[in-house]
Design brief:
Blueprint lengths: L17 E12 L2 E9 L9 E7 L6 E7 L10 E9 L3 E9 L5 E8 L10 E3 L19 E2 L5 E2 L5 E9 L2 E9 L6 E2 L5 E3 L5 E10 L15 E9 L4 E10 L4 E4 L20 E8 L4 E8 L5 H7 L1 E2 L1 E2 L3 E5 L6 E5 L7 E7 L2 E3 L3 E4 L7 E9 L9 E2 L6 H8 L10 E7 L7 E10 L2 E9 L14 E5 L8 E8 L2 E6 L4 E6 L11 E6 L5 E11 L9
Parallel strand pairs: 1-21, 29-31
Antiparallel strand pairs: 1-2, 2-3, 3-4, 5-6, 6-7, 7-8, 9-11, 10-11, 11-12, 12-13, 12-14, 15-16, 16-17, 17-18, 19-20, 20-22, 20-23, 23-24, 25-38, 26-38, 27-37, 28-34, 28-38, 30-31, 30-37, 31-32, 32-33, 34-35, 35-36
The protein binds 2,5-dideoxy-2,5-imino-D-mannitol.
């Protein structure tokens, strides 16, 4: 492939070449972080799937190892699809993954490290009992919708539990299995949870979060101090949705506070409102945090992916916890990413006038970390445009875009901006009045991101729960050659976008703060850094 690669990332995870998708089985073992991922060793499109394997001591710099799991037996000969790791008694890791068997049925397989004393867990042995779970005529499971086993959790009865994603007609299901020894599994009568009309549940993830505080807890913990989260990747929507609720261990059921059947799908929270899928968490017991990893597909055309020889990246690992409101999760890039920051630029507090553009100089604008916070003057809040009803936020973002002025907003950042603004991607807020309250719209607008219109230029957006009369409105954006990974409201909402500028490339890229509204807003803080290159599976 071409060596002139302006879109390869400097610090977002990717292998040297070829296709990648879901993160699989992340874990920490003997002080080493392991990341497995769906990988095509033979090309830049999905196919020939194996579990590629990388290790790290900081979740930022990664060293590649040989693939850990690849087709080798009748139960996985047509592919080794997604799954999870579980640390069993005696600190023994194990992998449960979906194999595509010789009949092209989806079955669940088990594997163990060959050598538990190897912190790199280089070699894995498949269980002679494989497949350990399979669809049969008795259990009436659809053999082409039965995949992605979760990390197991231990019940108070000493039995392991795990779920497998599935569907029956259009009802999404998390099928529950129990086991004493992690080898022989029995399907429970009831699923852990299901919801009509949601379609296939891919890559389910089920874990506890503390009611108070940002610390993570072990996947098996279930007491008065935790709530539970069920995340599912909806195949029909290609988004990751999460529900917060209670896990009733006696009935072995998850009961969401606001489930798919109680609210409109648009009201169910997502981890990310941009391009983001098939995510998975793990508990980092060394640093007492829960970490979330996710896959970001390309927005370029398949011929372009083949030309550049690669497709897919992962987001920066995010620490994830329950917001103090108890209503939603919060995500923030792991602190280790801050080691890559250099050339700190700090701008003093400043009023950003209506229609003003402020260039942020002094950082490498194609590989940067920018944090900005805004304050809206209480006396100008009446300027906010009033909405009669609440439209779909993503549609609102694309209708109004960056250019339609309103009373309060849009204001935010232009990234990957070319001189003269023929190209730019904008990440911004708009404030509206709605039913005597103020609501905040958070958008990432890719419509002007590239002169190459073969790319997917869809705008993304969501409403974000920030009270602008009493709180600052903050935005952090991780910029990385073709990645714009944004965190609004201190991590209450994330939007990840992929862009492929033709002019705003490498040292031609610029960053601006902008206010395209008619009312002034105050920048209360603005910090920006160039980001060093991370070791990403190859040479530095
Ligand atoms: N990707 C895997 C499946 C999973 C899907 C195959 C989600 O196991 O359901 O590569 O992206």
């Amino acid at each position: 492939y071409s060596t002139n690669q302006p879109y390869r990332t400097g610090y977002h995870f990717q292998p040297p070449k070829n296709w990648i998708n879901d993160p699989n089985g992340p874990l920490i073992y003997k002080g080493v972080y392991h990341l497995f991922y769906q990988y095509n060793p033979k090309g830049a499109q999905w196919g020939n799937i194996v579990w590629a394997h990388s290790v790290s001591t900081d979740l930022i710099n990664w060293i590649p190892l040989d693939p850990a799991i690849f087709p080798s037996q009748p139960s996985d000969i047509n592919g080794c699809w997604s799954g999870s790791t579980t640390i069993l008694h005696g600190n023994k890791p194990s992998i449960l993954y979906t194999g595509i068997n010789k009949l092209n049925h989806q079955v669940q397989n088990l594997a163990y490290p060959k050598d538990f004393s190897d912190p790199f867990l280089r070699e894995w042995i498949k269980s002679p009992e494989n497949p350990v779970i399979e669809p049969t005529s008795e259990n009436k499971i659809n053999a082409s919708s039965f995949r992605d086993p979760t990390t197991g959790w231990l019940g108070k009865d000493g039995k392991w539990r795990g779920i497998v994603g599935s569907k029956r007609s259009t009802r999404g299901i998390a099928i529950l299995y129990k086991s004493k020894d992690f080898v022989k599994w029995k399907k429970s009568k009831h699923p852990l949870h299901s919801a009509k009309g949601t379609g296939m549940w891919e890559c389910p993830d089920f874990f506890p979060v503390l009611k108070n505080g940002i610390k993570g807890v072990d996947t098996s913990l279930n007491d008065d101090y935790v709530r539970h989260v069920l995340k599912v990747s909806l195949d029909d929507k290609k988004h990751d949705y999460y529900l917060i609720g209670s896990y009733d261990e006696e009935k072995d059921r998850f009961v969401p506070d606001r489930g798919f059947e109680e609210v409109e799908i648009e009201e169910v929270f997502r981890y990310d409102y941009g391009k983001y899928y098939a995510s998975k968490t793990f508990f980092d017991y060394e640093k007492n945090r829960r970490i979330l990893l996710g896959w970001v597909n390309e927005s370029s055309s398949i011929p372009d992916d083949i030309k550049k020889g690669w497709s897919g990246i992962h987001t920066i690992p995010r620490t994830i916890w329950l917001h103090e409101s108890g209503k939603q999760l919060v995500q923030w890039p792991v602190v280790e990413i801050e080691k890559l920051r250099v050339n700190h630029v700090n701008l003093p507090t400043k009023l950003l006038k209506g229609a003003e553009l402020l260039q942020i100089n002094g950082v490498t604008a194609s590989q940067a970390d920018v944090e900005i916070a805004f304050e809206v003057n209480k006396n100008t809040i009446g300027e906010a445009e009033v909405l009669e009803k609440l439209p779909d936020p993503q549609i609102l973002c694309s209708q109004k875009g960056t250019s339609v002025k309103s009373g309060l907003g849009p204001f935010g950042l232009f990234v990957f901006a070319s001189k003269g603004l023929q190209e730019f991607t904008s990440v911004f807020f708009r404030i509206f009045g709605f039913q005597n309250k103020n609501i905040v719209l958070f958008c990432s607008d890719q419509s002007r991101s590239s002169l190459n219109k073969d790319n997917d230029l869809t705008s993304y957006g969501t409403f974000i729960d920030v009270d602008v009369l009493h709180e600052k409105l903050s935005l952090r954006t991780l910029i990385d050659h073709s990645v714009v990974e944004s965190f609004g409201g201190e991590g209450k909402a994330c939007i990840t976008a992929r862009v492929y500028p033709t002019l705003a490339v490498n040292d031609k890229a610029l960053i601006y703060a902008f206010n395209n509204g008619t009312t002034d807003v105050k920048i209360t803080s603005l910090n920006a850094w160039s980001m060093k290159k991370a070791r990403l599976n190859g040479k530095l």
